[in-house]
Specification:
2 copies of one chain form a homodimer. Chain A is an alpha/beta fold. Chain A is 53% helix and 14% strand. In chain A, strand 8, helix 7 and strand 9 form a beta-alpha-beta unit. Chain A is globular, with a radius of gyration of 20 Å.
């Protein structure tokens, strides 16, 4: 069944995701703050819209994947926001990584107008977006999740309905704890191996066969060893995410010491001018210490 | 080819490892500080010895897997130690997790007597020991590694020759960084999910599909969620290991912030009386904070 789909935010992640929705046979209405970034989508048959409101005029399910909480807020509630034209029953699916608390608030405000919302942040990076193998963590009502599921299946593989509105963002925050902490652990292990005069490749291979194995070690150790920090997942995004985590921890009165340690290293990386470097560059913070 | 094998330290790990060596067709001479712990090995055909020296009288390749650096030292160099009876060309393979620096020193002292040494610490826990799927990280000469390799293959799957003497222990230290740090990350993620009122099982499932995936999350999240901290890998061992890591870091003048955070949590767990609990009990330190 062809669905009229809206898409807002065709960045590194959003562009391949939108293309995969079109490959799935769906009609796409797209908006970007910088209209030139829509070109790959219009070339594939999408209709460019001048405002989020215009997207909402045509689409029944609208995906947003933008940088942070304030971007989501203005896309939905801004002067030209989705809410101006969204109809009763329209579904807004936010795939950005933002605050779970703000997400719940957005969902409540939309519900008052009969507009449904899902939070559906992703993990798996650009490769996962291109190959439609993203992990998608969804918060919202079960029946809305079921309606949108065929569209999620165009973009991802491990699609988990976590709970009510905001629960997807909580899961993503937890995902980022593991991602960011494991990455720092990998950096520390690779650095120690090097300083001890031992081949870090052999160490990474050995560790991948035992209890220390992680997706981050597998993906990031080669970059750290090669000092290849060209931005794929830029460190500023991890920095933003770990601050969401620590804000939540503060709100719940819990202590997350490994996350706090990682936040500190990411903070130092930002101050050193590494915001646009790949998150693997946390290695370089320790390497020069 | 049947090899005359020595085995010292038939604990939770050592016992199944020794049994797997016998299953491989090798003759076993075994010693334990508490002789009654040798019973499962003698029942399978091993010969009990009264001292390490007696093991060295009979065996050409001798495996040791004991608790810490001082235990290895007394097994090798003590009054009844291996060195009293080991012959020129005897190979001592230490599979304990101990200091890389001390290991190098032991190897040098043994070399003076024509005794070969490998350090070959393992990862994979009791299950890996029973199923002969351990990851084995080996330091020492290549020709000695090649000679012992068939015996390693009776006990493990991912057998990596890392480098010279001590390199196996460096790799194990790196492995423990990843293991212990990833476990703390998993604990923080599971705790945040619970406090946010979200099903931690669903979160763990989602995270395992993305960049946050790790062997520790997979194995330990269920224990944390169930508050099942019965000792498998006792936290005192992680505590010992992370102190080896921080000693190395100090020696090399590097900063390992995630390892330091994990060491602090493990230290608090020891002080709370959790030394014999499973290392997953780091969760409980944060849970009551």
């Amino acid at each position: 069944m062809t669905i009229n789909v809206g898409f807002i935010g065709p960045g590194i992640m959003g562009r391949p995701m939108a293309l995969n929705l079109m490959k799935g046979g769906h009609k796409l209405w797209a908006y970007a703050r910088r209209p030139e970034t829509l070109q790959p989508l219009t070339a594939a048959g999408a209709t460019a819209c001048a405002t989020p409101a215009e997207v909402a005029e045509h689409a029944d399910v609208i995906f947003t994947i933008v940088s942070d909480t304030s971007d989501v807020q203005s896309v939905i509630f801004g002067e030209q926001g989705l809410i101006r034209k969204a109809r009763y029953g329209t579904v807004i699916v936010d795939m950005s990584t933002i605050s779970p608390t703000a997400t719940k608030d957005f969902a409540d405000r939309l519900a008052e107008k009969g507009i449904e919302m899902l939070d559906a942040p992703v993990s798996g990076g650009e490769t996962g977006a291109i190959n439609a193998t993203l992990s998608i963590m969804v918060g919202g009502k079960t029946d809305v999740f079921e309606r949108v599921k065929p569209l999620f299946e165009c973009m991802g593989k491990n699609i988990v309905h976590i709970g009510g509105n905001g629960a997807g963002q909580v899961a993503k925050a937890c995902n980022q704890i593991c991602t960011i902490v494991n990455q720092l652990g990998a950096a520390e292990a690779m650095l120690l191996a090097e300083r001890a005069g031992v081949d870090p490749r052999a160490v990474a291979e050995a560790v991948m066969g035992g209890f220390g194995a992680s997706r981050m070690l597998e993906l990031q150790a080669p970059k750290m060893i090669a000092r290849d920090f060209e931005g794929k997942v830029e460190s500023r995004l991890h920095h933003k995410d770990i601050r969401i985590v620590l804000d939540l921890a503060r709100a719940f009165g819990i202590e997350l010491p490994a996350s706090a340690a990682a936040a500190d290293v990411l903070e130092r990386l930002q101050r050193r001018g590494g915001a646009r470097q790949d998150s693997a560059a946390v290695f370089s913070v320790l390497d020069t210490a």
